[in-house]
Design goal:
13 strands; 333 residues; 5-stranded mixed sheet
């Protein structure tokens, strides 16, 4: 990746007035909502996710959720891998995506331009509120970077400008110690959390800021990193869990069915219901003794235990960060 990418260009990429997100055989044409295509209701649904470097694995993790939605609504539902958070936002503004998951900050941007409602958020364990995440600043083992202050003047990998854990929280942290995230470092936007980490380990940057779950769970499970490969030099305050949002252009009854489908199951009961017959794993130890030895679905991109109800108020933290930092990327005009 070109290390001389300008921060201003990357921030502009967060705007929703981009070239149209990548079309696919299942995507509705721009300007055509699902409701438009079927008179009194949609004939199918589109569920969007932002791909990682292992897009097949990500898609597989959402298949059980899509299966639950299809079971409850009776509508075929396609999974669309859109190229970026901003691309999903644009697609929702054009009513081309009915259901989507993305970071808390992406929701902050989306709710200003798209007619959407958050209905659920990740729950990592059976404990309510356990989906809250942190942004971590990580370096390769043995790095001379030990604190956030040491980042000044360094090549820094972020995910993309519309990511709460992969950019905005870290930008706020830098501003808090007097560093400008556009001029006091050399920002490099890798596009996803896993790529940011692998590029840092490859030497393309000296520190990466990513969602903590990628360091503690996701990348170790994939064998991308192991104990001792990386060191954490900074941890953010809690950031609201990943939201799942629904387009308000869908009939209210259908919105309720989709929401019920997402909230009805957890990873274990989804497996018991036959929603992931070919791709199961053992229940995570953090889920407690009640689930020991049971099989579970990979329930969403973060490997969540379940989803719990969410509302717009749950994301007030992001508004506070934007109000405090006045970051350019927070503007969604």
């Amino acid at each position: 990746m070109n290390k001389n990418i300008k921060a201003t260009a990357a921030l502009a990429a967060a705007g929703i007035m981009l070239a149209a997100c990548g079309a696919s055989p299942n995507a509705r044409s721009e300007g055509t909502s699902s409701a438009d295509s079927a008179g009194d209701g949609p004939q199918s649904l589109v569920f969007a996710v932002v791909p990682t470097d292992d897009s097949k694995e990500l898609e597989n993790s959402f298949k059980p959720i899509v299966a639950a939605i299809e079971k409850e609504t009776g509508l075929p539902t396609s999974i669309e891998a859109v190229s970026s958070n901003a691309g999903v936002i644009e697609a929702q503004a054009a009513q081309r995506v009915d259901v989507a998951t993305y970071g808390a900050f992406s929701y902050y941007l989306a709710q200003g331009v798209a007619d959407i409602t958050p209905v659920a958020m990740d729950q990592r364990t059976p404990e309510a509120g356990s989906g809250a995440v942190q942004s971590l600043g990580v370096v390769a083992a043995g790095s001379s970077i030990k604190t956030l202050e040491d980042v000044q003047g360094k090549d820094v990998c972020f995910t993309d400008p519309a990511s709460s854990t992969g950019y905005l929280a870290a930008a706020a942290g830098l501003i808090g110690i007097g560093l400008d995230p556009k001029t006091d470092i050399n920002p490099i936007f890798a596009g996803s959390h896993d790529v940011a980490v692998t590029q840092m380990l490859a030497g393309d940057c000296e520190v990466a800021f990513v969602a903590g779950t990628f360091i503690t769970d996701i990348l170790p499970a994939r064998g991308v990193i192991k104990d001792g490969d990386v060191e954490t030099v900074w941890t953010s305050p809690d950031i609201p869990a990943t939201p799942m949002v629904i387009g308000n252009w869908l009939p209210e009854e259908l919105q309720n069915k989709i929401t019920d489908a997402v909230l009805k199951y957890n990873a274990v009961t989804a497996a018991e219901a036959g929603l992931c017959p070919e791709d199961q794993r053992e229940a995570h130890p953090s889920w407690g003794g009640d689930y020991t030895g049971k099989m579970a679905c990979e329930w969403g991109g973060t490997g969540a235990f379940a989803f719990e109800p969410a509302t717009d108020d749950d994301y007030a933290t992001i508004r506070e960060i934007c109000d405090t930092t006045q970051a350019e990327v927070c503007r969604n005009e």
